[in-house]
Amino acid sequence: MRVWRCFLQQSLASGDEVQLPEPLAHRLLNVLRVRVGDALQLFDGKGNEYLAQLTKLAKSGASARIGERVDVQAESVLSMTLGQGICRGEKMDLVIQKATELGVVRIVPLITERVEVQLDGQRLQRRLEHWQQVATSAAEQSQRSAVPEISAPMALLDFVFPGALLLDPAGTHRTRDLPMRSQLSLLVGPEGGFSRREVEAAIAREALALRLGPRTLRTETAGLAALAILQSQFGDM
Ligand code: SAM
């Protein structure tokens, strides 16, 4: 029988009985169709994971008894942050889902000159909650014990710092020439790319403009390809 992994945003300890939040109770009851007595695996997103048994599952609420601690080793030695130029709905979801599977610890939606998506106020808040849920589901599915943080959007030039890796089809650096590192930040342009002014300003701040070969990749391909290469070169793939 499949044991579902579920993220719980609270501290967990063996022997405790925990109330499950309403959205998780709804998913267990109506989507995953588990039953009282079934086993779950609960994790807190900070590296702690436990076996658990469902003790109550009803429309009025759900709870579980926490059992033994489980040792999960799915976090990479390489700490990767992805700065992704905000792209349209389903592309951004895809990037967040796959980047989580590839092991990023943080995703920063970047506001750049050519970003076409307008987000503010309640719309921004709803989108951030949605993106965080996409990352949580991907972490549950990919056996990760940490859930990447989706930060509030930042302007590109507020995010750039010396040594940041900016993906640019005209870049002069190649991944294979990068020195060994245990952490990195990767910046990817939106659908229309970074403007030359942005690239030059980032290079002036000592970012490295990185080229991924001769083909122009779509924004959702470029970041994911680079993350896989970098995880393979410096991490655990
Ligand atoms: N014409 C745009 C340009 O020249 O930047 C293409 C933009 S591309 C669809 C979107 C983003 O993907 C780029 O801003 C860059 O960050 C990344 N990208 C795509 N292909 C790349 C490549 N071959 N090397 C490095 N980055 C690439």
Describe what you observe in this structure.
- The protein is an alpha/beta fold and 237 residues long.
- It folds into two domains: 4-69, Ribosomal Protein L25, Chain P (Beta Barrel), CATH 2.40.240; 79-234, SPOUT methyltransferase, trefoil knot domain (Alpha/beta knot).
- Helix content is 31%, strand content 26%.
- The protein has six helices and twelve strands.
- The protein has helices at residues 22-31, 89-101, 121-141, 156-159, 196-204, 219-234, and strands at residues 4-7, 17-20, 39-43, 49-58, 61-69, 79-85, 106-111, 149-150, 154-155, 165-167, 183-188, 208-210.
- Strands 6, 7, 8, 9, 10, 11 and 12 form a seven-stranded parallel beta sheet that branches.
- Helix 2 (89-101) runs parallel beside helix 3 (121-141) and helix 2 (89-101) packs parallel to helix 6.
- The longest helix has 21 residues, at 121-141.
- The radius of gyration is 20 Å and the shape is elongated.
- S-adenosylmethionine (SAM) binds next to helix 6.
- The site of S-adenosylmethionine has 18 residues, from helix 6.
CATH topology of the largest domain: Alpha/beta knot
The fraction of residues in strands falls at 25-35%
**Bound ions, cofactors and other small molecules, one mention each:** S-adenosylmethionine
Provide mean pLDDT, rounded.
95
Count of structural domains: 2
